[in-house]
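hey
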């Protein structure tokens, strides 16, 4: 029960020779106007005479994100009313089981047609000595999944927090635009809980700028234990960093690899195919866009499209800019980065939309990677984009599972990562051992 709190500053206790144990509960996370430090002065009086006094400094436990290299516990996905992701769910269930995790399927009544589970929430945790609690950060996007975290997650040992503003939410306020790196060491400084990464704009862009809402950015910076990095995602139509980057575990000194999309890698593969006589091989074979428009296009047709090539040269420059930022801020070398093929095309505003399912937008479940099936050109029945991905990732001890997400997710301008969320095992290290 509450003895002393916001509504009262003194309390009467019984005279006793037994120890009286008092606990302190934090009511607010650190934020822009609160550094998380609380000094408590406690005075014991008897018959108006001061008997004892003491002062203690407390620090409110921060909210902590979990990176991809931590083991999965639960994967969440929405069951769509039109059943378009029914097969994907069954395939995903098997992979989640192989990763020794649980799959929780959210019924239509709990998502109101909003399939983008990754965008609505970020599942982290809060830890104090002897106590750990998962806490979901609810994004300010407030669409069909808005009530899901309160109704389905909030409960004993599962907290909920959000940050709202009068500022109108934009696409960058969704949490497909919020990730965290594995632990890194940068210029002699250790980040044992990794570094938060979110997308925004670039300093030199003056017009039509989009950034993550300031109250959310302030909250992330205020936690202090996962020093955030802002990268450039505003070049994308949807504007989420999970469209061009992710992390996978690896048996290397750093313990992970950074995965980036690469238009250059796509063109390298396609040019080699044409040179080898496979110019008529088909990308997006048998797939359709909305209104029944066929998506089929040959290798040679892609290479002959000068407008598409020009657009992808521009988008590759943006990816390269992010590459250099991430190398600097995470202490990476080129050997720590793997490029996966991806092509983009401009929307009406000149921002990038994916040309085919985006393989970087994957779910990482231990050594199991759930990757959007790219529908690349086939040679002797084998997709050459899939073959390349397996060639560069499987030597790391990873298992690649390619799932068809064209209908339920790609056509809605997302992928399987956008449509799921993962609760992970917390860090083994206590945050206060490194930061207090």
């Amino acid at each position: 029960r509450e003895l002393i709190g916001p509504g009262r500053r003194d309390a009467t206790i019984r005279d006793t020779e037994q120890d009286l144990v008092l606990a302190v509960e934090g009511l607010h996370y650190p934020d822009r106007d609160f550094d998380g430090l609380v000094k408590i002065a406690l005075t014991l009086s008897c018959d108006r005479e001061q008997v004892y006094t003491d002062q203690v400094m407390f620090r409110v436990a921060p909210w902590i994100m979990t990176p991809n290299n931590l083991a999965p516990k639960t994967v969440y996905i929405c069951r769509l009313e039109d059943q378009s992701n029914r097969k994907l769910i069954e395939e995903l269930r098997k992979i989640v089981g192989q990763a020794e995790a649980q799959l929780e399927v959210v019924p239509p009544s709990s998502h109101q047609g909003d399939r983008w589970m990754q965008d609505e929430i970020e599942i982290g945790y809060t830890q104090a000595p002897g106590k750990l609690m998962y806490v979901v950060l609810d994004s300010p996007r407030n669409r069909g999944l808005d009530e899901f975290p309160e109704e389905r997650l909030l409960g004993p040992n599962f907290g909920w927090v959000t940050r709202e503003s009068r500022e109108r939410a934009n696409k960058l306020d969704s949490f497909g635009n919020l990730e965290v790196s594995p632990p890194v060491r940068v210029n002699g400084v250790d980040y044992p809980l990794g570094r938060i990464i979110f997308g925004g704009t670039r300093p030199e862009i003056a017009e039509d700028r989009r950034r993550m809402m300031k109250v959310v950015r302030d909250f992330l910076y205020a936690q202090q234990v996962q020093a955030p990095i802002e990268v450039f995602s505003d070049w994308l139509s949807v504007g989420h960093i999970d469209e061009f980057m992710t992390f996978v575990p690896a048996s290397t000194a750093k313990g992970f690899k950074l995965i980036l999309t690469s238009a250059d890698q796509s063109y390298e593969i396609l040019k080699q195919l044409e040179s080898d006589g496979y110019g008529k091989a088909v990308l997006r074979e048998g797939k359709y866009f909305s209104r029944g428009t066929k998506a089929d296009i040959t290798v040679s047709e892609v290479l002959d499209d000068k407008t598409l090539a020009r657009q992808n040269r521009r988008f590759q420059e943006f990816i390269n800019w992010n590459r250099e930022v991430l190398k600097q801020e995470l202490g990476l070398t080129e050997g720590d980065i793997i490029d996966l093929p991806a092509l983009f095309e401009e929307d009406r505003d000149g921002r990038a939309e994916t040309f085919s399912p985006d393989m970087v937008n994957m779910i990482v479940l231990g050594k199991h990677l759930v990757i959007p099936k790219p529908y690349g050109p086939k040679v002797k029945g084998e997709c050459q984009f899939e073959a390349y991905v397996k060639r560069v990732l499987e030597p790391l001890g990873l298992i690649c599972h390619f799932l068809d997400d064209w209908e339920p997710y790609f056509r809605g301008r997302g992928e399987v990562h956008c449509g799921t969320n993962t609760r992970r095992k917390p860090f083994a290290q206590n945050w206060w051992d490194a930061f207090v």
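The CA atoms of residues 160 and 339 lie 36 Å apart. The chain has two domains: 1-60, 72-270+294-435.
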